[in-house]
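Input/output pair, single chain:
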Amino acid sequence: MKLRLPNKVRRGEAVSHETVNALIDALQSVLIQPGVGYERKVTPGGTILRIRQANQRESVTDFAPFAVREAEKVGSDYEVTLEPGRVICPDPVEAANGNDGLKWYVPTIGGVPMDEEDADGNLPVITVPVGQAIYCRIRRGADGMISETPTMEVAAAGEDSGHYQPVDPEGSGTEEVYRYHRIVEVNEDAGELDLVVWWKSDIQTVNQLWEGVNVGEGGDHYKEHDETAGTFDFRRTKGNYGANAATNGDSVEVDFDGENLNDLEGGQAVDIYKEPTPAEIAAGGPALFRQVTQGPSGRRQIEVAETGTAVQVMGNAVNGSGTVNGDVVVTAQDGLVTALGAVTVESLPSGSEGDMLYHDGTEWVVLGAPGVAVNEGWVLVHNGNNPEWLDTTVTL
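Output:
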């Protein structure tokens, strides 16, 4: 920066107090900054520049990003030259394309990039009234990405900022109305320049403000970060056979869904699943099922037992068989019929009142009742083969 010095005085010409004061003002406006190989120390007696030790590692540049290079008082204000800095924004789409995943922005001063030199090799200056500060003004969209080139602005110390909020599932993320990143305050102490430095490095924004991980057992809801779209993906809770899933306000509800089948055979049936009433549904109780029991007291011919893996229905432990003429016709085990014998039972001939039945060696034959007796009465006799009625006189 070129100092504004008074005009030169010729030999023998008197030096006025204006010339001396102008020289003093010029010297006071100079801010001494150490170059490569030097370090600065401010003492009550002035500023001392010391040579660094030879074994110390030197920085690549003289000034850190956004550091004050020079400050010159012009009237009641200061013209400040800053070391160019950058604002860095993570860009997941760029990362997915194989780049470094960052976007770099050089802020502007009065519409000119702060790293652009004029024809004389000077960087743009920014005029700061005493008591105010230089800010880097940043704006981001609802996705957290910088939406316009940042600018260097002057405002009162403690300027209010908007704040970016990431998009939530309902889409209520907010755009950053401007964040004012304070760089340096310009003050005076007893007429001397007093700088309060807030920032001396590149500014990096963060547009993914959280870190997630699945915990516990079960299906993972958090899936992964989609680098192509720049989104964090989650799995949905989906209903399935026997369960319904739905969103109810701020909750995802998974409800049991069941019903009793109709009796397809047309017989009597009992519902195992108890249909809930509206009050039971509202109370949020468990799904209710009826038990399988033995039956009423005194009629318990069936035994029901629960094992570790099944419900067993057993008979009453009655075993045996039934026979006809020595032939087994029915077999029962545990109270249930297990086998039936092949036994044929002949049908008997029909008859009338007073008839008698006998077998003629081949089949059963009906001996009809006799009519009105001629003599004293009928007598049933046997002729050696078959029975017959005999009308005769009976002597007692």
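Confidence is low (pLDDT under 50) at residues 53-61. The two ends are 173 Å apart (CA to CA).
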